[in-house]
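Note on ligand handling. Small-molecule inputs were canonicalized before submission; formal charges were left as drawn, and no protonation-state enumeration was performed. Where a ligand contained multiple stereocentres, the stereochemistry in the source SMILES was retained. For 3-phosphoglyceric acid, this procedure yielded the string shown in the input block below.
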Amino acid sequence: MFKILVSDPISRDGLEPLLEADNIEIVQKKASEEEDLTQYDALFVRSATKVTAELMNQMPNLKIIARAGVGVDNIDVEQATRKGIIVINAPDGNTISTAEHTFAMIASLVRHIPQANMSVKNREWKRTAFVGSELYGKTLGIVGLGRIGTELAGRAKAFGMRVAVFDPFLTKERSEKIGVEKHSLDELLSSADIITVHTPLTKETKGILNHETIGRTKEGVYLVNCARGGIIDEEALCTYLENGHVRGVALDVFEVEPPEHTRLLEFEQVIATPHLGASTKEAQLNVAYQVSQEVLLFVQGKQVTTSINLPAMSEEAYRKVAPYDGLAQRIGTFLSQLMNEPIRSIEVEYEGSAAEIETSYVTKSLIASFLKQRMDININTVNAGVLARERGIQFIEKVSDRHSGYSSSMTVTINGEHSSSEIKGTFIPHFGERIISINGFSIDFHPSGHLLFVQHTDVPGVIGNVGKILGDHAVNIATMQVGRKEKGGEAIMMLSFDKPLEETTLSSLKGLEEIVTIKAIEL
Ligand SMILES: NC(=O)c1ccc[n+]([C@@H]2O[C@H](COP(=O)([O-])OP(=O)(O)OC[C@H]3O[C@@H](n4cnc5c(N)ncnc54)[C@H](O)[C@@H]3O)[C@@H](O)[C@H]2O)c1
Ligand SMILES: O=C(O)[C@H](O)COP(=O)(O)O
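Structure output:
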């Protein structure tokens, strides 16, 4: 049974794909109120539940965290990655709702609608106190032209506004296509009548509007934050509201939510909503449905497509990757058993059609299989890169346009403290994964089951001697391949058996003087 804890209010209708599936149980309860967190495989959250390292430690079976929304700043993604937990979100399910909410906030701000509403409800009729400004002809400054910023820009243009944008990752072509003016932050600050932020909260965007930058805005500017608390510094806002430089502020998000201690709420010119950007029936259905479908893929052993900590891959792309993923896992497991020594680097070279797939995923899969043999922790494609780096193992990925006779291949070289090993493999439709070379010796076998790798001097009688010892120990040889580089040099044997080789058999084989290396491999 795959157990999911839904810790924040998430649309039940959106969870339908999971509710309809067999072997999935959903519990809707705050993580802080659940006593036995160890039983859960998945955790669903919005922005309220803080998914800290401590919470993850209490959930040893956690495999996937689903954020039914965009921002993942409430999730310790780095820690999740280290633990091999996939983090997914619903990147565009609430875009329209948030853009509409932002626009409603802007319109409310310049026409003083919330204040006028309160006044009328207090039985007042102050028509001159609430004289506003038109949006038509004004300049809207958008910091961050992503999904929400772009939707907002379209709405602002429909109202006859000029749109100035600051986004360091925005190309000139895209800004022209959307019909906005691309500016530096300085230009935007000095020209905009209303400034709205739509970036994620990062080291770079935290306090992007602060004491110094707000000081460079137009006298009487309006500021809006419907993205994340902290992108506009709250103390700086108070200063500029007090001295009248900022005429009004609209906030959907706060540095601390709920914002119990901020002075901001005491200002008449501040209008606020309790993080409602995504709170529409449509957005909630969209985001819950998006993450549910992804988690269902995960439960079915398929590739998720919107992960924060895995390379994004469509089903079509994964279909191409899958055969090499299987091959990489076998090569990684094989090499890890072949080399009992500390590792410095792992190099993977892709050739032919293998070079056209999402190679970074396959490389991570290979590293995970290699490290799995050596570590007693959960290792997968999510944390393989981080764990390898933490252990000082360099990994290098190359794509080659060489052709070595096969339409596709991958060559893995492991450089250890004392020696190196190299395996080349390919995937042949109808035949599956094949190992075609080991340490430069040509060979051809399917890497699976109970195997024995033997490297020996190429002299008469070795094969017979190995066969005799195996026979004496009642070991039946299932398959056997041999390979060599040159006559009289060194050669290799690859044998497979119906059951694992006993230690005593292996010791007897090690006694043969022609043998250079011998390793039992379990795949
Ligand atoms: N209030 C709500 O309920 C609500 C709902 C949805 C999203 N959000 C917030 O809105 C944010 C934006 O959402 P989105 O879907 O448009 O994200 P997005 O990723 O599509 O867009 C973010 C944009 O910010 C830009 N950016 C990044 N760093 C920047 C910087 N230093 N300066 C200027 N621009 C920068 C990026 O280039 C990108 O274009 C989210 O991160 C989320 O926190 C809030
Ligand atoms: O990042 C988001 O998607 C929004 O901030 C929405 O947050 P919520 O799911 O808590 O409403």
